[in-house]
Write a structure and sequence with these properties.
The chain is 36% helix and 15% strand. It is α/β, with parallel strands linked by helices.
Length: 149
Protein backbone atom coordinates (compact mmCIF):
# COMPACT_ATOMS: atom_id res chain seq x y z
CA UNK A 1 0.00 0.00 0.00
CA UNK A 2 1.28 3.43 -0.91
CA UNK A 3 0.30 6.54 1.01
CA UNK A 4 -0.27 8.23 -2.36
CA UNK A 5 -3.44 6.13 -2.56
CA UNK A 6 -4.90 8.47 0.08
CA UNK A 7 -4.35 11.70 -1.84
CA UNK A 8 -2.21 13.72 -4.21
CA UNK A 9 -0.64 16.02 -1.57
CA UNK A 10 0.99 14.21 1.35
CA UNK A 11 1.88 15.86 4.63
CA UNK A 12 3.74 13.86 7.28
CA UNK A 13 4.45 14.56 10.91
CA UNK A 14 7.39 12.95 12.67
CA UNK A 15 7.76 12.89 16.44
CA UNK A 16 11.05 14.19 17.75
CA UNK A 17 13.24 11.71 19.61
CA UNK A 18 12.06 12.69 23.11
CA UNK A 19 8.33 12.47 22.35
CA UNK A 20 8.87 9.20 20.43
CA UNK A 21 10.49 7.73 23.54
CA UNK A 22 7.66 8.94 25.80
CA UNK A 23 5.06 7.39 23.50
CA UNK A 24 6.72 4.07 22.72
CA UNK A 25 9.05 3.57 25.71
CA UNK A 26 11.95 2.98 23.32
CA UNK A 27 14.25 5.16 21.29
CA UNK A 28 13.92 5.35 17.52
CA UNK A 29 16.50 3.45 15.53
CA UNK A 30 17.46 6.59 13.59
CA UNK A 31 17.69 10.09 14.99
CA UNK A 32 15.22 12.78 13.93
CA UNK A 33 17.36 14.22 11.13
CA UNK A 34 17.94 10.80 9.58
CA UNK A 35 14.25 9.90 9.81
CA UNK A 36 13.33 13.22 8.18
CA UNK A 37 15.75 12.60 5.32
CA UNK A 38 14.28 9.13 4.79
CA UNK A 39 10.65 10.30 4.80
CA UNK A 40 10.95 13.54 2.81
CA UNK A 41 11.33 11.93 -0.65
CA UNK A 42 7.89 10.35 -0.21
CA UNK A 43 5.89 13.37 0.98
CA UNK A 44 5.21 16.91 -0.16
CA UNK A 45 5.45 18.53 3.26
CA UNK A 46 7.05 17.37 6.50
CA UNK A 47 6.80 18.72 10.04
CA UNK A 48 8.17 17.78 13.46
CA UNK A 49 5.94 17.03 16.44
CA UNK A 50 7.86 17.99 19.62
CA UNK A 51 5.16 16.64 21.94
CA UNK A 52 3.39 13.40 22.76
CA UNK A 53 0.11 15.03 21.72
CA UNK A 54 0.12 15.94 18.01
CA UNK A 55 -3.19 17.89 18.08
CA UNK A 56 -1.76 21.41 17.88
CA UNK A 57 0.55 20.40 15.04
CA UNK A 58 -2.13 18.54 13.08
CA UNK A 59 -4.45 21.54 13.42
CA UNK A 60 -1.62 23.73 12.13
CA UNK A 61 -1.38 21.88 8.82
CA UNK A 62 -5.05 21.03 8.23
CA UNK A 63 -7.31 23.95 7.38
CA UNK A 64 -11.00 24.31 8.21
CA UNK A 65 -11.61 24.34 4.45
CA UNK A 66 -9.83 20.97 4.12
CA UNK A 67 -12.08 19.56 6.83
CA UNK A 68 -15.30 21.08 5.47
CA UNK A 69 -14.64 19.89 1.91
CA UNK A 70 -13.47 16.45 3.03
CA UNK A 71 -10.18 16.90 1.21
CA UNK A 72 -8.03 15.54 4.04
CA UNK A 73 -7.57 12.28 5.88
CA UNK A 74 -5.24 10.95 8.55
CA UNK A 75 -3.13 7.83 7.97
CA UNK A 76 -0.76 6.27 10.46
CA UNK A 77 0.88 2.98 11.32
CA UNK A 78 -1.28 0.37 13.00
CA UNK A 79 1.18 -0.06 15.87
CA UNK A 80 -0.61 2.51 18.06
CA UNK A 81 -4.35 2.46 17.49
CA UNK A 82 -5.17 4.60 20.52
CA UNK A 83 -3.00 7.59 19.61
CA UNK A 84 -3.22 10.95 21.40
CA UNK A 85 -6.00 13.23 20.02
CA UNK A 86 -7.66 10.38 18.12
CA UNK A 87 -11.12 11.64 19.16
CA UNK A 88 -10.59 15.04 17.53
CA UNK A 89 -8.90 13.62 14.43
CA UNK A 90 -11.77 11.15 13.85
CA UNK A 91 -14.30 13.95 14.29
CA UNK A 92 -12.55 16.03 11.63
CA UNK A 93 -11.47 13.52 8.98
CA UNK A 94 -11.34 9.84 8.05
CA UNK A 95 -8.60 7.86 9.82
CA UNK A 96 -6.76 4.99 8.11
CA UNK A 97 -4.36 2.59 9.79
CA UNK A 98 -1.57 1.35 7.57
CA UNK A 99 -0.21 -2.15 8.30
CA UNK A 100 3.36 -2.53 9.48
CA UNK A 101 6.02 -3.50 6.98
CA UNK A 102 6.04 -7.28 6.71
CA UNK A 103 9.35 -8.97 7.36
CA UNK A 104 10.78 -6.03 9.32
CA UNK A 105 11.17 -5.94 13.10
CA UNK A 106 12.48 -2.76 14.70
CA UNK A 107 12.95 -4.72 17.95
CA UNK A 108 15.29 -7.10 16.17
CA UNK A 109 17.25 -4.24 14.56
CA UNK A 110 17.51 -2.40 17.91
CA UNK A 111 18.77 -5.54 19.62
CA UNK A 112 21.39 -6.28 16.97
CA UNK A 113 22.82 -2.76 16.95
CA UNK A 114 22.12 -1.37 20.42
CA UNK A 115 21.90 -4.14 23.03
CA UNK A 116 24.62 -3.88 25.66
CA UNK A 117 24.80 -7.68 26.05
CA UNK A 118 27.16 -8.95 23.32
CA UNK A 119 25.76 -12.50 23.55
CA UNK A 120 22.24 -11.18 23.03
CA UNK A 121 23.38 -9.11 20.03
CA UNK A 122 24.87 -12.23 18.39
CA UNK A 123 21.79 -14.30 19.17
CA UNK A 124 19.59 -11.68 17.51
CA UNK A 125 21.89 -11.20 14.53
CA UNK A 126 21.84 -14.89 13.60
CA UNK A 127 18.26 -15.73 14.52
CA UNK A 128 15.83 -17.15 11.99
CA UNK A 129 12.80 -14.93 11.46
CA UNK A 130 9.17 -15.69 10.81
CA UNK A 131 6.83 -13.98 8.29
CA UNK A 132 6.56 -10.75 10.32
CA UNK A 133 10.30 -10.35 10.94
CA UNK A 134 10.20 -11.51 14.57
CA UNK A 135 13.19 -13.69 15.56
CA UNK A 136 12.38 -17.34 16.27
CA UNK A 137 14.15 -20.41 17.64
CA UNK A 138 14.42 -23.77 15.82
CA UNK A 139 10.91 -24.78 16.98
CA UNK A 140 9.34 -21.55 15.66
CA UNK A 141 8.89 -19.89 19.07
CA UNK A 142 9.45 -16.14 19.18
CA UNK A 143 12.73 -15.32 20.92
CA UNK A 144 12.62 -12.99 23.89
CA UNK A 145 15.35 -10.46 23.20
CA UNK A 146 15.95 -9.16 26.70
CA UNK A 147 19.26 -8.70 28.43
CA UNK A 148 20.00 -11.07 31.30
CA UNK A 149 19.45 -9.53 34.70
Amino acid sequence: MSLREFGYFLVAGIHDDASYFKLKKKYPIDNLETRMKKVKPYVDQLFVIPSTDPLLYIKSVVSEQDIETGSCCYARGDDMLQFPSRDWVESAMPVYFVPRTEGCSSTLIRTIYHAEDEELRKKAAFAKTRYDGKPIDDEGNVLVLKAKQ
